[in-house]
Amino acid sequence: MLVVLLAACEGRGGRPPRSARPTPASGNNLNVVLLTIDTLRADHLGAYGYGKPTSPRIDALAAQAAVFESAYTYWPKTRGSFVAMLTGRRDSQTGYGKSHPVVLDFNPTLASVLRDAGYRTAAIVDNGNLASEYGYHKGFDAYRETWKEKALATEMDRTRAITDGGVAFLRVSGRDRPFFLWLHYVNPHAPYAPPPPYDRAFLDARSRSGSALPVVNGYHDGIPKQWAVAGENRLGYYIAQYDGEIATVDREIGRVLDALAGSGLSERTVVMLTSDHGESLGEHGYYFDHGEDLFDPSLRIPLLLAVPGGAPGVRSPVLASTLDIVPTLLDAVKVSYPPDLAGSSLLPALHGKAGRDRLFARNDRNLSATWDARLKAVAVPGEKATRYALFDRIEDPGETRDLGARRPEALRLPRRELELFLERADREWAHTRRLVGQAPADTKVGPETCEALKALGYVIAGCPP
């Protein structure tokens, strides 16, 4: 039944199909479709209050799903985010870090757990950071890496191919065994270059106003040189193009959802839509990138969950994390969890149950943060000591005023929570390092992946300059 997708994968980084497995003895046989959109800010979607029509199809899904209004990534870079998202574990449990920025094989993944439960598993992805060489293919019967296909010369070629492959898969799957299908779109990751008509759909007088920005090296205090468009030096222009990229992928999401409805499988399929991280659009002087800091523009993401039989239109205020995706989806299909998950199922929130009162996040620069409904504390390691910043997210939603020195009494609790978080991480690392020590430290990727990563602005060890 995977013949269409497997044929597309052959010779392009896919994995051969495993022998047929029986229908799961446990579980409810619901299918799972996971739709992930790279670099998507929640606040640029209509379902999250955005005033421009960037996302009519995603908004329509939101009306039939549960919307988690306070969802955040655990790690605001693609690789670290998807390690957390696909394993449900923190970096101190998975071994993810500078020496091993990959999915190490000792980690069970959502796909491997579902495949062992009898599911067909397939993925079609765009973003060289998700290369099979980095381990993200673990558990998939078919893993299509679109950037490795020479016939798909442009981002839009790959975007359409993801949808076409997903539609083809839905036409032939789900009749004899349940399936797990993951589609990952790289839009709206920079460079922002939507096709017509979306390249001009959000340009207006406001997008042409504002102060001119310089073109700079790097991502701070101006337009990054590699993303600059000749004659365009206003922030509004680039935000309009970012919105155009969202509208572009929204159309593709609509095609997938139409195919699911047309397949007759909607009533037997759990659908989740989310992102790996957000994007900084000039906040804190940080332009068209993500992950250097732990402010909300890079952390806050959309999270929609449609479960057969679930009440549509639920809007949940509970704090949700990408670490919750594995337990939530496994709970929805009633397949047993792997041990030691860091996240928890969000299904109780669909019935009004209260959730956790705080979240945590980490990044590639060893920053750690914790926040509740009001206060966010960020631990910034220094040569001599760790500095703690504090932001009041209600009085100062832009997180521009560090209150750490002025309000030590308010900092005391979140600082202690961060200290406990880091102490737990140290204990976990003591065990995890033994497992990591058995894994190779270097990972080589092919020229197609190197070129794909360069196009997204990444400089990767092992890739020629």
Q: Can you offer a commentary on this structure?
A:
The chain has 465 residues and is of the alpha/beta class. The protein has a single domain, classed as Alkaline Phosphatase, subunit A. It has helices at residues 3-9, 56-63, 78-87, 91-94, 110-116, 155-172, 235-263, 296-299, 325-333, 408-436, 447-455; strands at 31-37, 66-72, 120-125, 142-145, 179-185, 215-216, 223-224, 269-274, 280-281, 287-289, 300-301, 303-306, 315-321, 359-362, 368-371, 375-380, 387-392. Strands 1, 2, 3, 4, 5, 8, 11, 12 and 13 form a 9-stranded mixed sheet that branches.
Would you summarize the structure shown here?
With 465 residues, this protein is an alpha/beta fold. It contains 11 helices and 17 strands.
Distance between the termini: 42 Å
- If helices are DSSP runs of H or I spanning 4 or more residues, what is the number of helices? 11
The largest sheet, given as strand count, sense and whether it forms a barrel, is: 9 strands, mixed
CATH topological fold name: Alkaline Phosphatase, subunit A
Order of helices and strands: HEHEHHHEEHEEEHEEEHEEEHEEEEHH
The helicity comes to 25-40%
Mean pLDDT: 92
Binned strand content:
15-25%
> What is the assigned CATH homologous superfamily?
Alkaline Phosphatase, subunit A
Report the oligomer.
single chain
